[in-house]
Amino acid sequence: MSKQQHRETNMDKNFLKTEISRLKAEKNAVILAHYYTLPEVQEVADFVGDSLGLAQKAASTDAGIILFAGVHFMAETAKILNPTRKVLVPDMRAGCVLADSCKAAKLAEFKERHPDHKVLSYVNCSAAVKALSDLIVTSGNALKLVNQLPEDEKIVFVPDGNLGDYINRMTGREMVLWDGACRVHDRYETEQLDKMKELHPDAVVVAHPECRREMLEKVDFVGSTAAMLNFISQSEDKEFIVVTESGILYEMQKRNPDKVLHALYNGDPKHDCVNMKKNNLQNIYDALLNESPELTMDEEIRQKAFLPIKRMLEMS
Ligand code: 13P
Ligand code: SF4
Q1: Residues lining ligand 1, judged by CB closer than 6 Å?
Q2: Dihedral angle at the C-alpha atoms of 264, 179, 111, 138, nearest 10 degrees?
Q3: 98-182+300-315 placed in CATH 3.10.560.10
Q4: pTM score over 0.90
C-alpha cells in the first residue's frame, strides 16, 4: 500500500469511528464485540468479552439497539434474551462452523436415541438447537455448571466433541459426545506448539478447550478467552504462548503491556476465524445507519431457547 493510500485508509477509519459514535448516541445503541474480532471493531465496542460475558451483558443492557459484532449464534443469544430490542448483525454470513455441525433435526433424532439423557449444549449452537436443550454452557462456565448437576445424571453434550471430552476428563463424567469441532481450534497442530516452545522455552502456554486433547495435554492452562486473559493478567510470568484465535492478542497485550505474548501461528490469518473477521468498521457503520440487517426469530423457538439460557445465567 502506498503512503497516500495508507493515509486515506486511516482517514476513512477515523471518519467511520466518529460516525459510529455519533449513531450510537443518536440511536441509543450498544456495540457488543467478541475478543476474536478485528482491533478496530474492539475499539468501537462498548463491551468486549467472551461468550459468557457477552450473554450476561446482553441480558443487562437497556439500549434500544444491540449491534452484535461476533458470529450469528452469539447475536441470536442476545435476541433470545432481548426480544423487544433490535439486534443488528453487520454481516449475516458470519456463522460458526461448529454451530453449523449440529442441526436441530439431527439433534432431535439423537435425543430419541438417548431418551433418558439430558441435553447439555455449548452456547455455540443455533437457537433451534438451544430450544431442544435442557441447559446451555459456555467454555467459561462449563465445569462449574456440570459439577452442579446430579452425579448420576445421564447427559449428551453437543456440539463440540473436544470441549465435551475436556469436561468429561475434568469432572469424571461420561457424557455422550456429538461429533463436532471448531475448524479453527481443531486444526492447531502440536508440532507447531513444539516449535514455538523451542523458540520460547520460558513461555507459559494457555489454550482454549476447543483444541484437541493432545494439544490440551501439552499446555499449562486451559480456559475460555476471558479466563486466559485473567490468567495472564494475574500471572507473575512474563512470556506466554497463546493457543487460540489471535484476535485476542489485542486485548491481552493492552492489559499486559509489560508481557511478551506469542500467538501459536504468529498471528497468521490462515489460522484465524474468518467469520469473526467479517465484522469491520464499514459494515458496523452501515448496519447502525440503516438499522439493518436485523436478526429476527420465531417467537416459539425463542421462548423455548430462553429457558436453558436462563438456567445457565442463574447457575453461573
Ligand atoms: P469463548 O466462550 O471463550 O469466548 O469462546 C467462543 C468461541 O467461539 C471460541 O471459539
Ligand atoms: Fe465458531 Fe470456531 Fe469461529 Fe469460535 S473460532 S466462532 S467456534 S468457528
Answers
A1: 50-51, 124, 138-140, 182, 208, 210, 224-225
A2: 0
A3: no
A4: yes
Considering every ligand atom, which ligand is closest to the CA of 279? Answer: 2
Q: What's the rounded Cα separation, in Å, for the pair 112 and 145? A: 24
Q: Which CATH architecture has domain 184-271?
A: 3-Layer(aba) Sandwich (3.40)
- As a whole number of angstroms, the distance between CA 103 and CA 159 comes to 9
Reading the block at residue 4, the C-alpha cell is 497516500
Class in CATH terms, 3-95+276-296: alpha beta
For the Cβ of 124 lying below 6 angstroms from any atom of ligand 2, the answer is yes
CB-based burial label for 179 (10 Å; 0-12, 13-18, 19+): exposed
pLDDT in tens, 180-200: 999 999 999 999 999 999 999
DSSP line for 167-210: HHHHH----EE-SB--TTGGG--HHHHHHHHHH-TT-EEEE-TT
